[in-house]
Amino acid sequence: MDNPSLVVPGALQPLLDLTEVIGKVGVPQTTLDLVRLRVSEINGRAYTFPEETGKADERLPLVAAWRTESCFDGAERSALEMAEAITLMTDPQDMAPDEIWEKAAQYYNDEQLGALVMHIGLVNFWNRVNVATRQEPAAWR
To answer: What is the pTM of this model?
Structure first.
């Protein structure tokens, strides 16, 4: 089937509007991109990357190994840890333990933390829609 966000009248714009709002609270776009890719990897949503160097963050292929790769800073690590905890939901009663929130709060204020959580949820939504309807791998922007 075609992407449901294109099939259901009026569905796409609110999702795009939410993405825009999330991008305006001060979380760097590079961090949001790293989170989007990590969440998508967990959910089985594939992306294709530009072959030309300089078109995409060269760290993207390393995002799954963020714990051991030195190219990610503390703020990015805390966002990636939050993304994994919320996406994997290994313990739905305590999806993101206090320790994860405390680490993230060292780098992000409440508005930014809220935007990160909403971004993670929105990426999970997009992934589930795209994977469920067997959409082709998306080209990384």
So the answer is: 0.91
